[in-house]
Each structure stands twice: as C-alpha cells, then as structure tokens.
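To the wet lab folks,

You asked to see what we're planning to order before we commit. Fair enough. Below is the target structure as tokens, and below that is the sequence we designed to fit it. If anything looks off to you, flag it before the synthesis order goes out.
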C-alpha cells in the first residue's frame, strides 16, 4: 500500500512536472494535485500550511516534504521508498 501523495502545483511548473515524474517512476499511481493556478485561494492555504510560496509543495502521508529539490534529495539519501510504502 502506498502513502497518500498531495502536491500543490501549477500547470506549467517544470519542478512540478519533474516531481510527478520522479514519483511515477517510484510506482506512485495517484497524486492528488491541488492546482493553485486555478484556485488562488489554495495558494493562501498552501502558504499557511507550509510557510512556502513556491510550487510544488509535496506531502507524503502527513509529512511535508517540500519542493522537488527536497523530494530528489530524499530519494538520493534513500529515504523516499520507505516513506512511500507507509
């Protein structure tokens, strides 16, 4: 069973696209995307929750990972697979 993935994103963000590609390559079948470009009020919600203004902002389960760079660093450090399998 895979952990629930939530990603705040926009349509044209290359970091969002790369994050989705990485997660898909890890076997993730479903990513709940919250499009802050289509729902500006969601960006305010994202900023309050994460303290960040940029996308993507990624949650794996209840854990805030951060953006693509943090997701990639987690993968390189060997911690992503275990988080995804929770």
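Sequence we intend to order:
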């Amino acid at each position: 069973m895979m952990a629930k993935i939530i990603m705040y994103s926009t349509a044209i963000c290359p970091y969002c696209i790369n994050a989705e590609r990485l997660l898909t390559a890890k076997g993730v079948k479903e990513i709940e995307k919250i499009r802050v470009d289509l729902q500006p009020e969601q960006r305010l919600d994202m900023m309050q929750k994460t303290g960040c203004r940029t996308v993507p902002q990624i949650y794996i389960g209840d854990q805030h990972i951060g953006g693509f760079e943090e997701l990639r660093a987690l993968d390189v450090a060997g911690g992503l697979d275990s988080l995804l399998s929770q």
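Structural context that might help your review: The first helix runs from residue 14 to 25. The mean pLDDT is 96.

Thanks,
Computational group
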